[in-house]
Structure formats: C-alpha cells, structure tokens
Specification:
By secondary structure, the protein is α+β, with helices and mostly antiparallel strands. Helix content is about 30%, strand content about 20%. The chain contains five helices and six strands; from the N terminus they run H-E-H-E-H-E-H-H-E-E-E. The strands form two sheets. Strands 3, 4, 5 and 6 form a four-stranded antiparallel beta sheet that branches. A two-stranded parallel sheet has the order 1-2. Strand 1 (about 30-35), helix 2 and strand 2 (about 60-65) form a beta-alpha-beta unit. It starts with 13 loop residues before the first helix and ends with a strand. The relative contact order is 0.11.
Amino acid sequence: MDNVAVFEIDPLDEQKLGKIINKGIEHGVFFVIDEFHSYPYSKYKSLRFLILAGRNRGCGWIGITQFTSLVPKSVIGNANLSFLFSIHEKNAIEYLVRTYEISREEILSLEGHEFYISEYEKVIRDKEGKAKKFILSI
C-alpha cells in the first residue's frame, strides 16, 4: 500500500502520540486508532483536537474498540458515522441503548457480520422505521 504508515504507540505516551497527530494534521492524514478506548481522550490535547477539529484541517479518523461504553459521549457525538456490530455484554448493550436511538432487541438481533450504521447518534432506519442492517462481506 502506498502512503500508509503504521505506528504502534503506547496509549500512555502522550508525547509520541501528539507528535504523530500534529504531523498528520499538517499533511491531511486519515487516522485509524485501534483500541481507541485505551487513549485518555480527555487528557490528550492533540487527540481532542484531531477529533473535534481535524476535519476542518482535511483529516479524518476511525476509532476501533470493543468497549464502546468507555468512549466518551462527546467523541460519539462528534463522529459522523458509527458502525455498531453484534455485542452481548450487558453493560455495553445498555450503553448503546442510552447513547444511540436503538433498542436492546435490535442490538441482539445482529448476527455474524451484520451491523448498523449510525449518523451521529441516530441509527439509519428503513421506511417502516426498522433499523437497517448492513453486512460486512469479506
């Protein structure tokens, strides 16, 4: 892949993370942050800047986590799109129900590689008002 750089960063290494984010913002980079919940968003100024103002600088980002309940609502509210996959952990389901316009039954109905897409905090629905399922094809 051309123009791809991969960095392994200790989530507690604020200086290294800040340096990479600031350099990326200078060049309009798209960031993918795995285990997003591990990075102390409220503490790291560069990460907050990327999430809150990055798009104004030509940057985008994807935060990947299995622990949605550990992601601050201010981050979710600032994300254009969220992809909600199957999950069965009780606290996570309750968090999704509180955060997104989705029911417990809808979350539990997801199978395999099915997922919902949420625009900000609103799950995309069909004409009948049912949450629209998408399928990840690998």
